[in-house]
């Protein structure tokens, strides 16, 4: 594992769990077309059914396939995956997320197809057996590609994988795609917001307690007593109903927008972007908010401090601490000058450090040689 491939790579198969709008799927949607533009044949295979990402990729000329999985225990998917690889073997598999890269390791080894495992989180959800399986199968991957330094440390410290077998490649974005010009007043009206209020927002799967949205609601109860403000929560998930019920009981001034395709436009109406997560690998949405010129308040989890410079582009707070979160949001809402400074510094940082082209260069170097 970790050596340069001894055969040409022309046909790349990305494998993921689903085609939803999660961070991992967004990264595939950004990486795959750029590899295609560099002359590779690129395919994307999902264990689950179609979604927004498959539509986006198909429109860009990327072949997308679904194994029509019915859930995490649908073992028919593994047989379909095996048959697909037998019928149309790629030169290389790049699998994102545990449930995709574990079977890719086994099937890749069985069929003689090299694979790269992309690890995207800190494995807080993993039990002892899952960690043992991670370690036992790691050598079946040509290389392991982690999305942040903290994820790499998790793999070394908690799983026992040798550091030399891990390539740390931070997420990247097309910064210019978030230079969205909108009529802010019109967008605020469209979203049903008060034009005179400060607007705090987050983009997240509604999956508790991992995403910390309950903490954000508790913080906002404090915030709205101090500053005329509204909270926007963009994204859907299994806990949407319970979070809405909680916000109603707490009388929180919040709008749940669900999953949206106009996130770039919505970011333009925010005054502050908040990410209260209790677990993250390297959230792409942080980079999107920085590219939108927003100051960031986020927790000291995973790769977040690798993106957000505390006191320079935003504030880093203790995860799970609603009072600290509220204090920092209030401070920033009351300081127009600092919000502007943080936003400008964040935009400059994401342009310099988190270009999608550099991310793709480093991924390509995994099989072409050069520095990882």
Which key phrases capture this entry?
single chain; 372 residues; alpha/beta; Rossmann fold; 7-stranded parallel β-sheet; 6-stranded parallel β-sheet; 15 helices
Describe this structure in words.
By secondary structure, this protein is an alpha/beta fold. 43% of the residues lie in helices and 17% in strands. It is built from 15 helices and 13 strands. It has helices spanning 23-37, 52-59, 76-87, 98-111, 128-137, 149-159, 184-190, 213-223, 240-250, 263-267, 284-291, 304-307, 322-333, 336-353, 356-368, and strands spanning 11-16, 41-46, 63-66, 92-96, 115-119, 143-146, 166-168, 198-203, 229-234, 254-258, 272-275, 296-299, 314-317. The chain has a 7-stranded parallel sheet, sandwiched between helices. A 6-stranded parallel sheet has the order 10-9-8-11-12-13, sandwiched between helices. Strand 6 (143-146), helix 6 and strand 7 form a beta-alpha-beta unit. The longest helix is centred in the C-terminal third of the chain and has 18 residues, at 336-353. The protein is globular and about 60 Å long. The chain starts with 10 loop residues before the first strand and ends with a helix. The mean pLDDT is 93.
């Amino acid at each position: 594992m970790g050596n340069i491939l001894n055969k040409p790579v022309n046909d790349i198969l990305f494998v993921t769990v689903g085609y939803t709008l999660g961070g991992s799927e967004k990264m595939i949607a950004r990486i795959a077309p750029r590899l295609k533009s560099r002359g590779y044949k690129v395919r994307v295979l999902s264990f689950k059914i179609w979604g927004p990402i498959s539509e986006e990729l198909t429109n860009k000329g990327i072949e997308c396939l679904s194994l029509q999985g019915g859930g995490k225990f649908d073992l028919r998917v593994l047989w379909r995956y095996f048959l697909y690889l037998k019928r149309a073997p790629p030169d290389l598999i790049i699998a994102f997320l545990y449930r995709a890269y574990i079977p890719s390791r086994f099937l890749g080894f069985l069929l003689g197809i090299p694979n790269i495992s992309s690890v995207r989180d800190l494995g807080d959800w993993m039990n002892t057996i899952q960690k043992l399986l991670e370690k036992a199968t790691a050598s079946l991957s040509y290389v392991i590609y982690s999305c942040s330094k903290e994820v790499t440390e998790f793999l070394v410290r908690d799983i026992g994988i040798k550091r030399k077998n891990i390539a740390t490649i931070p997420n990247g974005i097309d910064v210019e795609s978030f230079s969205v010009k909108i009529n802010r007043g019109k967008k605020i009206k469209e979203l049903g917001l008060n034009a005179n209020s400060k607007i705090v927002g987050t983009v997240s799967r509604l999956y508790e307690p991992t995403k910390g949205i309950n903490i954000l609601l508790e913080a906002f109860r404090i915030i709205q007593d101090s500053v005329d403000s509204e909270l926007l929560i963009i994204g859907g998930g299994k806990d949407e109903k319970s979070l809405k019920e909680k916000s109603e009981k707490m009388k929180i001034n919040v709008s749940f927008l669900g999953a949206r395709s106009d996130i770039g436009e919505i970011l333009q109406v925010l005054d502050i972007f908040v990410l209260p997560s209790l677990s993250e690998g390297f959230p792409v949405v942080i980079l999107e908010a920085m590219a939108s010129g927003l100051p960031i308040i986020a927790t000291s989890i995973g790769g977040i401090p690798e993106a957000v410079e505390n006191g320079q582009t935003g504030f880093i707070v203790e995860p799970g601490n609603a009072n600290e979160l509220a204090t920092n949001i209030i401070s920033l809402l009351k300081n127009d000058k600092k919000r502007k400074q943080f936003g400008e510094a964040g935009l400059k940082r994401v342009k310099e450090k988190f270009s999608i082209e550099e991310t793709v260069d480093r991924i390509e170097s995994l099989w072409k040689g050069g520095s990882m």
